[in-house]
């Protein structure tokens, strides 16, 4: 189907551009690292507290990092008006969004996986036993962040003060993702790890709702 | 003009009547005493605010579909009035909590969700101030408004689930938990009064936006010459 | 430069209005460019030329009126896609010339995209620099890659918005020659300009816009020279 083949072509363009410079990835990894370290200076948690608060802080750091990482998403396309050439070339404007949100999810996930060992060490969190569940939660949460972030980045790119605007629009919108992801993650690290099925299902619902909204309204986001 | 005055008059009278009913007609609550009466304003404001945000959402959808600027006027009016009522909710919550619990804030599910709702619509209004061209402003804020409104049930759902994991004191007890019949009547009357007042404010704000847009248009026509 | 265009296509504007927040950028613009014409849109800055071209390119939706392409057999997705060359290159600085053309060829389902990209690169004289990032290109080279991108899908109509801006005389000559060849092969050319030059001398049709209105048209008797030199501002 045309949508998927266009998305594939655009996705490879997004990945190629990023892996050529690796700017976004490196800055995002460093940012999360710095935030996590600063959190522990500010709170000075005990070992027990680390385990309890760590996941929440991790997700907070991910959210902050994402709101910075997602800014260039559509801003880049303003440089040489490449957004216009994309709009002219694709049959379904949703493919532009789909490619970007898949790329953003991959970048976020990659950043998180790189961060995981540091997080486990600094916050004394036993990451290995429930690793598969953890990766699932990271994936669903990152997907939610990317879908909302990609959509809002298209909006903020067209307004003034766009650097401050994106976090301002995005963070309140992502409250459900923060709250649920953090709670589910904490439960995975408890003495008796529990898998919060409801929480995971909720994240999936969030992702589906916003993906659908983006599919329905995406073309208007790109209008001139 | 007379219609507006009558509408306004009726709205204000209803609110005064509701206030009277809250203080003098509703029976005193057993445990909390006088402060409990704030419940009538608090919950009525919450519902009215929510309806106002729903009007904003309708304006957003209709604007994206029809591109008639009047829908944008409706949207901004709904958002601002909704925000005003939501602010009342966020203020009356702690006013209740302090004498009863001795603390100003608990991360109670409904209050927290209302706070996020408040932030979302503040962002909506802020976004509007950052886009100068009226058609772009209407379109982009409508799209954000749609995403924000779709987020609202997710926010309330997520926070409620979060609170079941970590229970905290609940402001004003469970909703409608054992309200006696007179209290129920006063409550529904307050809700009605607040809604009428809310609709009056939305209509006024709409008229203001209409005048502002027309004035701006004239100003720009003059400049172009 | 281009193979013979299979379905010569024209461009028709009927009652096109474009309003931005109450102010009209275009008002009741109505005219038709026949298939195979080489048309020039003249007008001062702010007269609406760019807006009209972007509407023709289907990047902007008109507030009212109808746009059509008489003679077109829809290229793909049921939509005739004109080629569009704007003020910016509309290609990615961080990709090479080849990567850019391949990207747009694949998106538009061009047959044998690799061969097509190579052919175009040769035609615009960028084959030697095909593996260089567009970021390293000079102004003239950027214009050439922009045109290559616009032509990748063999459009029957080519829209250009002030394409000679910033080009040196050699660049302008190259552009004029390329456009002449394309037009001879059957491509309809619609280009906005602000004054007379080597490029405008090839025009078979000219329309002048002022404050969003059509004020002169060679079809209704005005001379090409008059339209281009009007006001000279």
Outline the structure in words.
The complex is a heterotrimer of chains A (224), B (225) and C (233). Helices cover 82% and strands 0% of the residues of chain A. Chain A is mainly α and 224 residues long. Chain B contains six helices and no strands. Chain C has 233 residues and is of the alpha/beta class. Chain C has two domains: 1-82 and 155-233, P-loop containing nucleotide triphosphate hydrolases (Rossmann fold, 3-Layer(aba) Sandwich), CATH 3.40.50; 93-154. Helices cover 28% and strands 24% of the residues of chain C. Chain C is built from six helices and nine strands, in the order βββαββαααβαβββα. In chain C, helix 2 (97-107) packs across helix 3. Chains in contact: A-B, A-C, B-C. Chain A binds chain B through residues 148, 151-152, 155-156, 158-161, 165, 168-169, 172-173, 175-177, 179-180, 183, 198-199, 202, 205-206, 209-210, 213, 217, 220-221, 223, and chain B through 64, 116, 119-120, 123, 126-127, 130-132, 136, 139-140, 143-144, 146-148, 150-151, 154-155, 157-159, 161-162, 165.
